[in-house]
Amino acid sequence: MADASQLAFYALPGHVESAAPLRAEVSDGAALGLGAVLLSERLNVKESAALCGYAAALAGPDMEVVAGLTFPHTRHPMDLAAYGGTMAHLAEGGFTLGIGRGVNHNWDTWGMPRPGMAMLEDVASVLRRLWTGESVVDHDGPLGRFPGTLSLGVELPHQPRLALGALGPKTQALAGRVYDDLLMHSHWTPEGTRRSVERVRRAAEEAGRDPASVRVWAMLVTACEVPEEVVLQKVVRRMTTYMQWPGYGELIVDANGWDLAVLDRLRTHPLLDGRMADVTAFTTDELLQIRDIYPDEWLRDGAAIGSAAECAAMAQRLLDAGADRVVLHGSAPAQVQSLVQAFTTS
After folding, report:
1. What SUPFAM superfamilies does the annotation carry (predicted)?
2. Element (H, E) at 202
């Protein structure tokens, strides 16, 4: 029988106007026995450290708290290390600090550098040294130049895990070589997931690490037992958001072996001319037109749609493909009760 702790949930997904629903979402997730809560960061009302600290106070000993994701360069390394060190004490069920590149458009708009592979590797090295009690002296690397001495000056009860959010094959391989966990992106099919898992395990082995020690988290956009108009909002609109972002869409399509011509048709559709899906209020008719651009298998194999049994089976397919955890994305815990019940009784 499957265990609900193999499932996690993504709290406050996407663009939100308030962080207040977090209390109910974490409480509901704990009641369902879900094994982890993931919290993304948007620099508005979703500041990662505040969300994770609040979630830790609610989660209890059986729920891991995962920052999924924050960024390597928006905080001084001492600030980022202190964030992880504090959470190592507060999160009874464990804490994982997830790092990612973010969206290039934001960095360009804010006048900040785009994080690259070297920076992602450097930040992991600096954090681990600080968390093990080492002093980092006159650091000068891809993360930046920090003259002087960096040191937490305390002994942590245990180190936080480090996760890397990665879409492309090179970044996924970096997760296998350097990080403790890989946080995958939404809309990976089971076959795409299998290839990513194999890539990460292979990279870990080549780096002399235990491949099984690197956890892989699959992200599953979920619309379970809901009307069609809700599926359009939760799945079609969300998928379209990712497909519109330069670079993101190409990586998702390539990972799944899908047809790039479909992506081109989507991006050039008149309904999306000058309109980004994540901040546009589409009518149901407009979303139906967008949905019709997608082949059925993109929606069927890249999300969990339908009955509780069908959605639970989709989560199991990702686990069977090698994922260690499946993160239910786009639906609050209160909206996936039937899915969790079907998953644990299948």
Report:
1. Bacterial luciferase-like
2. helix 190-206
Q: Which residue has the tokens 């072996």?
A: 257
Task: State whether residue 164 is helix, strand or coil.
Answer: strand
Q: In degrees rounded to 5, what are phi and psi of residue 261?
A: -60, -30
Phi/psi-derived region of residue 209, left when phi > 0, alpha when psi is between -120 and 50, beta in every other case:
beta
Token pair 């006048």: residue: 111
pLDDT in tens, 133-177: 999 999 999 999 999 999 999 989 899 999 999 999 999 999 999
Rounded-to-10 torsion of CA 106, 110, 112, 116? 0
Residue 207: DSSP 8-state: T
pTM for the structure as a whole = 0.97
SS3 category, 295: coil
Phi, psi of 222 (to 5 degrees): -125, 130
**Domain parsing of the chain, residue ranges:** 4-222+306-334
**CATH code for the part of the protein at 4-222+306-334:** 3.20.20.30
- Neighbouring residues of 40: CB distance < 8 A, sequence distance ≥ 6: 10, 12, 13, 46, 48, 68, 69
The DSSP output letter for 42 is B
CA distance 338 to 336: 6
Residue 167: closest CA among 198, 202, 196: 196
Distance between CA 63 and CA 50 in Å, rounded? Answer: 17
The whole-angstrom separation of Cα 138 and Cα 128 is: 16
Which residues have CB under 8 Å from 63's CB, separation 6+? 26, 29, 30, 34, 35, 36, 37, 93
Query: What dihedral angle (degrees, nearest 10) is formed by the CA atoms of 200, 202, 204, 209?
Result: 150
Q: pLDDT of 149-160, one tens digit each?
A: 999 999 898 999
Cα(183)–Cα(217) distance, integer angstroms = 5
